[in-house]
Amino acid sequence: MTRPAPEIASPHRRFNPLNGEWVLVSAHRTMRPWQGGTEMPDDTIVVPPHDPDCYLCPRNLRASGEVNPDYQHTFAFTNDFPALLPDGIATHESESALFQAEAASGTSRVLCFAPDHDRTLADLDRPGVRSVIDLWCSQSAELGEKYPWVQVFENKGDAMGASSPHPHGQIWASNFLPSHVSNEDERQRSYRASNGTNLLVDYTAAEHDQGTRVVVENDSWLVLVPYWATWPFETMILPKRHILRLPDLTEDDRADLTDVLKRLLVRYDNLFTTQFPYSMGWHGAPFLNESQAHWQLHAHFYPPLLRSATVRKFMVGYELLAEAQRDLSPEQSAQRLRELSDTHYAKAHSVHVT
């Protein structure tokens, strides 16, 4: 690996205005030898188009005893083992501030991206990706009628704890704003009160002008490695105009989101020629009656891989006890992703072989 330029190699801290935390950037640490733990790439295992033992494949029996329909596109259902239940049980109130608890209620759903057991979101064609985006939007709109917070997310790959190899995401809706969301809400609200403008709208414009951390873009969206990124190849997807929530996306917004999402995911897979693991999710304005003008829709992607398909970033030691730290600069990460092909490595290989 090329040694970083001196101004990049020098350790420094960067501030994240979206959560109020700092990250230590130590780009020179990518030069250190590695004899630690490694991952087994998921694509070393042959995955069939349909697995009769998979709980998410069409026509298969789930653990709950329900049978999946013969779905041809996307499919959503209530999780058989949900983290949230519709009726939260009141907790015992304590007089001590040291022992606080409150009831939590909601629902958890599974979102199958396609009937194909062997095709990740990066493998789907553009109509398939668009179907997933439409599902995100429709599910968010439906659940937002009842719950103030709707969290759309995906854990891809064993390295990120995916419980099934069948490509799928989840959506958890709750009667409360989770901690990370409350933090973003407070920071964006404070920024608007102080500046009269929207934090992420201003940030997107500034990143577009600089360009050094931009990975891909089109008329409606910008994909970038955040200035304050913690994970090695962390990215954000940001709209170029002010949008509050997923259901607010227009036809053009959805078409352009299909484009940048596909291009990002292909680049992720191409980076280390592997099925690139990550956790991703959407943050948008809570479904509350009062004004949410301080909010801006955005997606976070948190991939763990650092050096190769087998070497990941571990958030341990200093990260757990002091503050987040990264081993290469966001500018380096963005440049590597930006320079990758829009053609998936598996397809490029098949064309070459033919």
Query: How much strand content do the residues show?
Result: 15-25%
Encode the helix/strand succession as letters.
HEEEEHEEHHEEEHEEHEHH
Overall SS class: alpha+beta
CATH architecture: 2-Layer Sandwich
State the name of the first-level CATH class.
Alpha Beta
List low-pLDDT spans: 1-7
Shape estimate:
globular
Report Rg. 21 Å
**Order of strands side by side in the largest beta sheet?**
3-4-6-5-10-11-9-8-7
Helix content: 25-40%
The CATH superfamily bears the name HIT-like
Q: What is the rounded distance between the termini?
A: 32 Å
Give the count of structural domains.
1
Number of helices: 8
Largest sheet: 9 strands, antiparallel
pLDDT average, as an integer? 91
CATH fold topology: HIT family, subunit A
User: Total number of β-strand segments?
Assistant: 12
What does this entry look like structurally?
By secondary structure, the protein is of the alpha+beta class. The chain has a single domain, classed as HIT family, subunit A. The protein is built from 8 helices and 12 strands. It has helices spanning 6-9, 126-144, 179-195, 199-210, 251-271, 318-321, 330-338, 345-353, and strands spanning 12-16, 21-25, 75-78, 106-112, 149-156, 168-174, 214-217, 221-224, 235-239, 278-283, 298-302, 324-326. The strands form 2 sheets. Strands 3-4-6-5-10-11-9-8-7 form a 9-stranded antiparallel beta sheet, with helices on both faces. It has a 3-stranded mixed beta sheet with strand order 1-2-12. A hairpin with a 4-residue loop joins strand 1 and strand 2 (21-25). Helix 2 (126-144) crosses helix 5.
